[in-house]
Write a structure and sequence with these properties.
Layout (H helix, E strand, L loop, with lengths): L6 H8 L3 E6 L2 H4 L24 E5 H8 L13 E4 L8 H4 L14 E8 L13 E7 L2 E6 L13 H7 L11 E5 L4 E4 L4 E6 L3 E8 L1
Antiparallel strand pairs: 1-2, 1-3, 3-4, 4-10, 5-8, 5-10, 6-7, 6-9
């Protein structure tokens, strides 16, 4: 599977196919919900012109023009991120080659979300059902809180901005559990646990959501 996820192989197979990009903030990630749930954070954040919650572009355009390191000053609403919203018909030949983690929760089935993102990018704190995340290329840093411990964050702040401005001031008892996963490593995220991610390099990754 890793051999199929190189830049050249992906562009050859999917370069002309459209991909859906979402803005990298909590509101965009939790599509269809009434906000991201309870949060603690700044009372206000800088505003910018609203960007559509999702944008469709050819995969080659994303790779050649939009796949770049995260701007530390950019808001989540100004950052486009390719993860999830995969067209399973068009990307099916790739997903058919993936061998998911062998562990399952009884009564659940797995659904894949594939992503490619630049260094410094990531998804801010949010929660959903359980699943696995595997890195194919690059490194991904994870920050996790149990369901009853709501993190301090603003839903339109990128993970990189949170790490630079909020994280250093957190007392030890308020800091998240964290780890970094590398190629071939898999992380299990439990049901309804808060988590945020930060891609330390240009990264290719896939998640298996159990539902």
């Amino acid at each position: 599977f890793r051999a199929l996820c190189t830049k050249d192989k992906l562009l050859a197979a999917f370069g002309e196919r459209p991909v859906r990009l979402s803005t990298a903030n909590t509101y965009s990630y939790r599509k269809g919900e009434q906000g991201p749930g309870p949060q603690r954070g700044p009372a206000a954040a800088p505003r910018s012109a609203p960007r559509p919650p999702a944008v469709d572009v050819p995969f080659q355009e994303y790779v050649e023009h939009l796949l770049k390191p995260q701007d530390p000053a950019a808001l989540g609403s100004d950052t486009l991120y390719f993860f999830g919203d995969n067209n399973f018909t068009e990307w099916g030949p790739l997903f058919q080659q993936y061998v998911p983690p062998p562990f399952r929760i009884p009564g659940t089935r797995g659904a894949y979300s594939f992503g490619i993102a630049g260094s410094g990018s990531g998804v801010p704190f949010h929660w959903h059902g359980p699943g696995y995340s595997e890195v194919i290329f690059g490194r991904k840093r994870w920050f996790l809180y149990p369901p009853d411990k709501v993190p301090h964050f603003h839903p339109n702040e990128t993970t990189l901005a949170w790490l630079r401005h909020t994280y250093p001031a957190l007392p030890p008892e308020e800091r998240p559990l964290e780890c970094t996963i590398r190629p071939g490593e898999v992380l299990y995220f439990p049901d309804r646990w808060w988590h945020a991610t930060l891609n330390l390099d240009m990264s290719v990754f896939i998640s298996t959501f159990l539902g």
